Amino acid sequence: MSRMNKIPRSGWLSGLLLAAIAFTLGLTAAGDGPEIAAFQPGAAVAAPGDPLRSYADVAELAMPGVVNISTDKPVELPQNHPQLDDPMFRRFFNIPDQNQERVERSLGSGVIVSDDGYILTSNHVIERASKIRVLLNGTKEYEAVIVGQDEQTDVALIKITTDTKLPYVTIGDSDLMRIGDQVMAIGNPFGVGQTATMGIVSAMGRNIGMMAYEDFIQTDASINPGNSGGALVNMSGQLIGINTAIMSRSGGSQGVGFSIPSNMASRVMEMLVEHGKVRRAWLGVVPAEVDQTMAEALGMSETRGVLMSEVRPDTPAAAAGLREGDIILEVDGAAVNSTSELRNTISLAGVGSDVKLRVLREGRDRDMTVTLGELPDAPVAAGVQREERENAEGIEGVTVRELTERARTQLNIEADVEGVIVTEVAQTSNAWHRGLREGDVITEVAREAVRSLDDFEKLVGRHLDRPVLLKIMRGANVQLVAIPR
């Protein structure tokens, strides 16, 4: 019998296994297999381009500066209901006395941004709060005071006072973030305690119609109720967003979360510290988007910039020489390509500051400087009543009539304004989808004045190969609308 036959079966199998492992390792060492970076616990925080590894360093750096916030908010009780006057009814259903104030307690998060106790959070976390408590490191609790609130961006600034310097999160530059960058969300979801979740930047510059001024970073990092006001940090542990909203059918995270960019939040914070409120700057224009339809109507070769539908008199824009039909391409060297982008940039630039604009006028670029004013209260649009009169048609789905004296009175339109009034817009028409509505006054077609129904029909009949550009008046506002044929 040979020596091999004397080797136990288990020893023979082990030998084969060891040989296979050695062969595999030999191939890998020779470069025939993929190289995988080794995990190094305790290494420095990742810089862009570093290989994938643990996120513990980012969490360790940022989490001490994120706090839990709890608030007491008074809630109005129903009044003057007959059954509430019955003591037996109130005792059976455990309803408090009508004179007794009911307090609702809610939870959220915040981010310490300075070692002396300033904390950024979402305004809706502390809105209407009669008492704000901040829990630091899960152990120490402090009572906070409100420094300032800005409902229009959902940013609030609160402060706690301590005898020691506090850990804080360094504010980063949110403009440097790109779609696909890794981010970490830190907060207090559902009140379970401080939690970190990972994801990427899904989109930038999102507008979801929640606040007046929006420029959200969208992320798939898990954000849930209680995360509001918490931190969104980059892989250097810097704050690049304040978590504020989610889109969800269930109420929990479905991978669509939104954060206020750190650049917007920090600018709001500066104003709240300085003034106790946000003083928004103002140009004095009515802007419009330049999409493909509008660009074709204006004879532009590409879609860029923001169109000035109206430049109001006695405003900073008018004083600087801006005109209706101008297209703002840049503000202080940064491109602007949407009305919200222009609005956000101007509003936070500072009242009284000078901004440099790159403007496209009649096919040529020019530079202008505007000294910004302070945003006044918005005018209220006048109501419109329907008046029956002989109508004329010129755009598919749109019916117009003469602008009579009765209509001028109803619309509060000055005697020197000329045009035709829209009496009907079909909801299936291009005009409806582009924003034209009943009661709008069309004062120009293709940059030419409209004085009668004949003018309207004649001008609409021209340039059938491209969208028709209308100048309309709606209440106190004037804007340009481009309607595809």
List keywords for this structure.
12 helices; Thrombin, subunit H; 20% helix; alpha+beta; Pdz3 Domain; seven-stranded antiparallel sheet; 485 residues
Task: Please give a quick description of this structure.
This protein has 485 residues and is α+β, with helices and mostly antiparallel strands. It has helices spanning 3-6, 9-29, 56-62, 87-92, 123-126, 262-275, 292-297, 316-320, 339-347, 405-411, 430-433, 453-460, and strands spanning 66-75, 102-112, 118-122, 131-136, 140-143, 145-150, 155-159, 182-187, 195-206, 216-219, 231-233, 239-246, 257-261, 281-282, 285-289, 306-311, 327-331, 334-335, 354-361, 364-371, 373-374, 392-395, 398-402, 420-425, 441-445, 448-449, 468-474, 477-483.
How would you characterize the overall build of this protein?
The protein is of the alpha+beta class and 485 residues long. Strand 17 and strand 18 (334-335) form a beta hairpin. 20% of the residues lie in helices and 33% in strands. The model is unreliable at 1-44 and 378-393 (pLDDT under 50). The strands form 5 sheets. A 7-stranded antiparallel beta sheet has the order 5-4-1-2-3-7-6. It has 4 domains: 64-159, Trypsin-like serine proteases (Thrombin, subunit H); 174-275, Thrombin, subunit H; 281-374, PDZ domain (Pdz3 Domain, Roll); 392-483, Pdz3 Domain (Roll), CATH 2.30.42.10.
